[in-house]
Amino acid sequence: MTALVLLFIYAPLLLVVVNSFNADRTFGWPPKGFTLEWWGRAFDSEGVREALVNSLWVAVVSTVISLILGTMLAMALQRYKFFGRDVVNLLVILPIALPGIVTGIALNNMFTTILGVSLSMWTVIIAHATFCMVTVFNNVIARLRRMNGRLEEASADLGAGVFTTFRLVTFPQLRSALLAGGLLAFALSFDEIIVTTFTIGAGDTTLPIWILQNLFRPNQAPVVNVVAVVLIVVSIVPIWLAQRLSADSVGISAGRARARAAVK
Amino acid sequence: GTTSGNNNPGATAKTEIGAGEGQVSILGWPGYVEDGTNDPKVDWVTKFEKDTGCQVDFKPFGTSDEAVTLMRTGQYDVISASGDASLRLIAGGDVQAVNTGLLKNYPDVYPFLKDKAWNTVDGKNYGMPHGWGANLLMYRTDKVVPAPTSWGSVFGDAATYSGKVTAYDSPIYIADAALYLMKHQPDLNIKNPYALDSTQLAAAVSLLKEQRKHVGEYWSDVVKEVQSFTTGSSVIGTTWQVGANIAVADGAQVQTLLPEEGATGWSDTWMIGSKTKNPNCSYKWLDYIASPEANAQVAEYFGESPANPKACALTADKQHCETFHSGDESYAKQIWYWTTPVANCLDGRKDAKCTDYSEWTKAWTEIKG
Amino acid sequence: MSETALAAVQKPTAEVPAIRLRRLTKSFGETNAVDGVDLDIRQGEFFSMLGPSGSGKTTVLRLIAGFELPTSGTIELEGQDVSGKAPFERDVNTVFQDYALFPHMSLVDNVAYGLRVRGMGRTERRERAAEALGRVQLGKFVSRRPSQLSGGQRQRVALARALVVEPKVLLLDEPLGALDLKLRQQMQIELKELQRSLGITFIFVTHDQEEALTMSDRIGVFNNGKIAQIGTAHEIYQRPAGPFVANFVGTSNLFDPVVAGRLYGRQEQFVVRPERLSLSWDRSAAMHDGVASLPGKVTSIVYVGHATQVNVALEDGPAVVVLVGTELPEGEQLLGRDVTVSWAHRDAVWLPGEA
Amino acid sequence: MSETALAAVQKPTAEVPAIRLRRLTKSFGETNAVDGVDLDIRQGEFFSMLGPSGSGKTTVLRLIAGFELPTSGTIELEGQDVSGKAPFERDVNTVFQDYALFPHMSLVDNVAYGLRVRGMGRTERRERAAEALGRVQLGKFVSRRPSQLSGGQRQRVALARALVVEPKVLLLDEPLGALDLKLRQQMQIELKELQRSLGITFIFVTHDQEEALTMSDRIGVFNNGKIAQIGTAHEIYQRPAGPFVANFVGTSNLFDPVVAGRLYGRQEQFVVRPERLSLSWDRSAAMHDGVASLPGKVTSIVYVGHATQVNVALEDGPAVVVLVGTELPEGEQLLGRDVTVSWAHRDAVWLPGEA
Amino acid sequence: MALQISQPGADPGPGNAPVPRAKRNSFSALLNRSPNIRLAGLLAAPAGWLVLVCIAALAALLITALWTVDTFTGKVSQTWTVDNILQVVTDPVYQTITLRTIWIALAVTLIDVVIAIPISFFIAKVATARWQKLLVVAVLMPLWASYLVKAYAWRNVLAEGGLLEWLGTPVGLNSPGYSESAVILTLAYIWLPYMILPIHAGFEKVPDSLLEASSDLGAKPWNTMRLVMLPILVPSIIAGTIFTFSLSLGDYITAQIVGGTTQMLGTVVYANVGAANNLPFASAVSLIPIVIIMIYLFVVRRTGALNNL
Ligand SMILES: Nc1ncnc2c1ncn2[C@@H]1O[C@H](COP(=O)(O)OP(=O)(O)OP(=O)(O)O)[C@@H](O)[C@H]1O
Ligand SMILES: Nc1ncnc2c1ncn2[C@@H]1O[C@H](COP(=O)(O)OP(=O)(O)OP(=O)(O)O)[C@@H](O)[C@H]1O
Ligand SMILES: [Mg+2]
Ligand SMILES: [Mg+2]
User: Is D169 part of any domain?
Assistant: First the structure.
């Protein structure tokens, strides 16, 4: 059963790999010939590099924003009961629960029609940070729930002020949750296409946008396959990293955190 | 998005080209503005930048509709608009009139591309023609026998290849049906496939709904379509010449033809945004892209007929212009270029009210169901 | 019970008390977790708070440490009012029940934490922390993580961590609750030793009466957010202030006013501890001076190792538990046997107040 | 210690034992959690497994229940070999330490679960479940969720759930471990009552020796995956089979072979329980027949309520603990005082085997 | 062991200066005293952000749905009308599309649940610790492949003469071609990891003792699964369905790539934003998924699923 599912998961990916070497520009099956042309072109393509840099930049900035905001929000919701708590709780879930196209045109509409801001990388970052926040939020709040509340009291008891306590006790406890949430936020932002389509400014491309633009261009589609293969291979690094870090720092429960984290 | 701007289609044209502003942002079909980043061998932008000192910032779009939306933001200086976008842009005041006298390559352009409904309004020119192509009928020679001659194969006789028919995925495709009806149902009195009153539209819609039952796939990008033909998922339907070329290159047994009814097609125009801050660079681009060298490169890379006959001599494939029937005016005459349908009937009828593009859009949604 | 009256009884001391609570009250919504507590804890004292679950012991401790702020009343630390101060402004440290060691720090960093946040240099604080760990015999584990220690070892780290900053008062909330019996008994002795040698005031929370009895200089028995009795182990055990204390601290055989009236002509409750009752295996108990006797029947016998608990239903009185230290008559049917239970008059503890 | 020899001593019984373990072994990687255990548990017996943490008690229980399969050896249930059977094929039920109640079901559904999976109709099984809940005094809570109960109440639900399917043997893994002292004592009594009235075999795991002593018909003392001794509470307490058992069950004063040689002319260890030692507050202990005496010095005194623990360092022997039931001489300095400790010869328990 | 005290009395040891007292920090003390200030400090930025970006944008969208587009200039004119909404609600074609979209989203969700439960069970409860790690990675990795590329790969798989047919023909299996089923299959593939992960986390949270208890009480594995595992997993499953359902509900790219002629709500919204530049109408159409998701969230709110996201 599991083997079947894994086959189901990997067969199409394998096809992508095969097609990155497929001489046929429209990928007929079975492949007509073998070529390294696409790989060569992909590494020469400035467009790919530029889009990649943009994507990394957007993903990093929106991850950082969502890490900060998500952590603050999680701490507020986990520790305090206040009026409107449920509403805020729903609000943080909404951007991810709503279909991307809705979030996309809502933000597009707000930026261009209501606020009159011109679209740019920054509008993309705002949009991404909004829906990435929930991944950080969920990870952090789950960790906070499990975290021993006495630790912070112990810290205060030993003479540490509020900020020192956060820096020396709370933050280190949250680190692996932040890492998991951050990685996921990064992944989400990095691969986001729909919301990005609606919020990106003139002349800017992120990697998915570049892929979308080139997927259906006669000479570019195979190059896209190459990019995809590279992405898949490179993705092993952060996943292993997340695995290792979470396993080392908090043991069994981290496994749970990780899996839970891995969900948006 | 929409920005409010002066609704002023008669903006006065420029009288001279000054020094470049150092930059120009261009909105265009993918493949129209290549600077070598995608393929180092395909590059005509770098030369432009070197010659004029105008840095090019390029944003491609997928459909005319997207093009209009993007142009409306006012962030772009120049756009390559097909006929179904150009009128909307002119009407929306998003582009300005162009003084063609300032463009030294303008006189070379095929005359049958000048002063057309999609680039000229009230006698004012709104841009530089770029290139054109027809929406042809393509079929698999091994699967479709006998060879078709009429659009009837994808309309009346679509059932023969049920599930393997393909069609262009845009409201503008309604015009293809209207063109067919124009020839086969004279009592509807269609004079221009882009000027349909509500009865005529309804007839086209019902024809397309009938066709829908046999359509295997609507295509919006040409590689996707080619792929379907190569694999055999589609065996007959509309195409662009460029698609046919790719298919043949990939070894598919396909053939294209211009059916007896004629065809719809596109003719693109480079236009300048009404709010541009870089008018000089914009004019320079319009002129540059119509130069024989650049025009040849674009036309060949994209797979269309160039606007400048001098380009034909410079294409790598010497047959290019022949394949695309570039100078063939009679061929061009059979083509109804994409034009945005508007309420004021384009065929000159004053008594009737025509359906506009937003109605076509809703009709298209309804057709696809 | 007249708990309030009793709680107010405080021996006036010349010296400033380590902790002075005055009418301390803490409410959570409707419930008064702590309800007007007055308490003076002397310098250098080992003071235990004993009471059933939910009686407010932890809350009092948290109020003293500053984790909760009182609803009303004041807390004085060595004569200074600290009622509104934050935990990090009070010279009081806590050993938590679950130890609350920082899991991401090594032992030495855990212990050095209090010094670190006080701005002491790295070398010095680590030295002191290592020294403190040495004092609790964990000198060789300095670089381990808390998760690599056993329960008892963690307990010691928590202790070292609290003591290294030299607090005036150390608060311990059921520090031995999580340990198993043998380890617990050992730690009781160690803790007591430590307190004696350091001379610091310990406030020790427990709900285990034996633990409180064996360790404390004085005990405060809590019930329902109030203090039911304050006194030494002896006082609490031998002269309970009411039926609640009598029952909570050790097992008690309660005789109601009717029986008391018949035996002593005094219409008040009294209790006799099981180990103060003696049992004769027949109905012929010698009625000599200063001893009361009642006949009864054995209902069950439980062997508890060091002694045997014999449950006897008295004929004209309650069912009582007798703790028999000597061996029971062997080879005989003891259940259901007629016996006589007797006790010395001076072992009867009279409980004033309501029935 | 000769544990294996001792463990093998089984009284031959005519009836088929409820559980029979033969050379039962379970290894986890390198460690032998259970190491060749032979054990017969009689029908209707209340059998306790006592032992320190990690001694293999839980593993034996899990082997019997079928959650683990033995590395070698066999398990017989009423004479039938069930060694390889799945848990749902064995007529044995377990009360888990954490109760393992299904959080998504009401109490009645929890209890009815075993009947449900056996295919009993809805009405009947709910009736029976409600009845079982009534038996454990939770009749009015039938529709509550487990999360709405206190620890003691959950414990009873777990019990009802296991009992409603009428198992032949009930396994209980430290069922009282999570409860506090008073509740625990109460539940001990209830459990024992229940077992008596149902006549089902109970196998009860605990590491609390007092609990084991008070409740069990027989006790198996585990050490290191092996059984160190099997016997009644009396046997285990009064005649420990070795120093391990002597020390683990109750406090023991251990005298080494040298002292034994001097006193009795026998070069073997012996132990005397603290409550069997008596103390005279001077050096003039009457040397009468059948009594041994040794002089010593009081090192500390701990008041434990029902008695006082006096620690005495003997001059020519070990430090011993004496449990004094009577009141100590009042108003005198007792610490450091010269005393004599004596015991009856018959209270000395000889420990055969290695030192 | 006994605690050895070097010397009696509170003397900290030879040569050691007394420990400094804790530093005064009045701001910290203020924060410590007043939970409200702490809360405000924590909440202001993120809640403000969400209200601005999320609530304001949705409100604006709703308002825009009440405007119209000038058919001549194609610009939004701010005249109020409910025409758009009326048309979306009454025109049968939108009902058809809505129903189809919901059906696709439901089918995708169902397929993912059916696949995810056994595989997560296997990973969480059957596989050894080593394998467990590997498998989690194996499931996570496709998450990093570009969505578009995966969809496109499926286009190739599903093509006539494509991988699926190539594999399927010998066993009598037919490729569904480019169709609604293709959309369902592809979406189910793309969103599968988003279903596996919460369910896997859910399985890990079920204590082993519950499974043992069930077995102990006589339940065969299937009954344990049905009566104990599944009910406890409900929140996790719902958490997964929120993703697969909502992600499918708003999709238009996959429909474009493998859908053949299939139209979904996303297609219509996208067509109207771009085509005819009819943002008000697009807004009106997008109200449908908003309403559907809101209702769904409201319904599942009580199950605690939202905490399992
Ligand atoms: N944060 C809180 N919110 C609401 N009620 C509380 C809170 N803390 C304690 N209580 C209530 O206050 C009362 C006293 O609780 P407290 O923890 O002080 O008891 P305790 O004597 O320490 O009990 P235990 O022996 O179980 O630890 C209880 O009724 C408890 O439910
Ligand atoms: N699943 C397992 N994997 C590896 N080792 C195990 C496992 N279960 C138990 N052990 C080991 O087997 C030995 C016996 O464990 P067991 O749980 O039976 O002890 P116990 O007597 O029940 O202890 P406690 O009183 O702490 O519950 C221990 O050393 C333990 O570490
Ligand atoms: Mg407490
Ligand atoms: Mg155990």
Answer: yes
Distance from CA of B130 to the nearest CA of E (A): 23
Instruction: Tell me, using a 6 A CB cutoff, whether residue D207 lines ligand 2.
Output: yes
Q: Is residue D162 part of a domain?
A: yes
For the stretch E217-225, contacts whose Cβ atoms lie closer than 8 Å and that sit 24 or more positions apart, written own/partner, are E217/D88, E217/D93, E217/D113, E217/D114, E217/D117, E217/D161, E217/D162, E217/D165, E218/D88, E218/D114, E218/D117, E218/D118, E218/D165, E219/D88, E219/D113, E219/D114, E219/D117, E220/D88, E220/D117, E223/D117, E225/E121
**Mutate which of D57, D69, D211, D223 for ligand 2 pocket (most atoms within 8 A of beta carbon):** D57
pLDDT reported for residue C35: 92
Q: Do A202 and B40 touch (CB under 8 A)?
A: no
C-beta C209 within 6 A of ligand 1:
no
Q: D280 with D148, same domain?
A: no
| Touching partners of D (3+ C-beta pairs < 8 Å) | C, E
- Of D248, D266, D289, which marks where a domain is finished? D248
Q: Which CATH number do you get for residue C115? A: 3.40.50.300
Q: Is the CB of C177 inside a 6 Å radius of any atom of ligand 1?
A: no
Residue with tokens 């790598």, as numbered in its chain: B316
Chain E residues bordering chain D (beta-carbon distance below 8 Å): 207, 209-210, 212-220, 223, 227-228, 231-232, 234
Assess whether C72 and C160 both reside in one domain: yes
Amino acid at E42: L
Q: Inter-chain contact E53–A130, Cβ cutoff 8 Å?
A: yes
CB contact at 8 A, B306 and B131: yes
Quote the distance between the C-alpha of residue B17 and its chain's center.
28
Q: Are residues C130 and C73 in the same domain?
A: yes
**Closest partner residue to C180 among D207, D306, D323, by Cβ?**
D207
Does the beta-carbon distance from E22 to A159 stay under 8 Å?
yes
d(CA B117, CA B108): 20
CB contact under 8 A, E219 and D93: no
- Examine the domain organization and report whether C23 and C167 are in the same domain: yes
Once rounded to an integer, what is the mean pLDDT over residues A127-141?
89
The residue assigned the tokens 């029609």 is A113
Q: Where are the domains of chain A?
A: 46-249
E306: pLDDT strictly greater than 80:
no
Instruction: Find which of C209, C251, C303 to mutate to test the D interface (most D CBs within 10 Å of its CB).
Output: C303
Residue D214 belongs to domain spanning: 9-248
Q: In this structure, are D107 and D206 located in the same domain?
A: yes
Average pLDDT over residues B269-295: 92
Q: What is the number of domains present in chain C?
A: 2
Mutate to test the pocket of ligand 1, among C24, C28, C67 (most ligand atoms within 8 A of CB): C28
Nearest residue in chain A measured CA to CA from C94: A157
- Whether D45 contacts D170, CB under 8 Å: no
Same-domain check for residues D244 and D270: no
* C-beta of residue B30 within 8 angstroms of C-beta of residue B39: no
pLDDT over threshold 80, residue E17: no
In the three-class reduction of DSSP (H, G, I as helix; E, B as strand; rest coil), residue A118 is classed as coil
- Whether D82 maps to a domain, the answer reads yes
Distance from CA of A62 to the nearest CA of B (A): 23
**pLDDT per residue over C200-248, tens digit each?**
999 999 878 888 988 899 999 999 999 999 999 989 988 888 888 988 8
Homologous superfamily of E103-264 in CATH? MetI-like (1.10.3720.10)
Give the pLDDT band (50/70/90) at residue E225: confident
Q: State the chains in contact with E (3 or more Cβ–Cβ pairs under 8 Å).
A: A, B, C, D
Q: Residue E214: list chain D partners with CB under 8 A.
A: 102, 113, 117
Contact D309, D319 (CB under 8 A): no
Structural domain contains residue C4: no
Domain ranges of chain E: 103-264
Question: Domain boundary residue among D217, D232, D248?
Answer: D248
Whether residues C226 and C155 share a domain: the answer is yes
CATH of A46-249 among 1.10.3720.10, 3.90.950.20, 1.10.10.10, 3.30.310.50: 1.10.3720.10
Q: With contact defined as beta carbons under 8 Å apart, do D146 and D180 qualify?
A: no
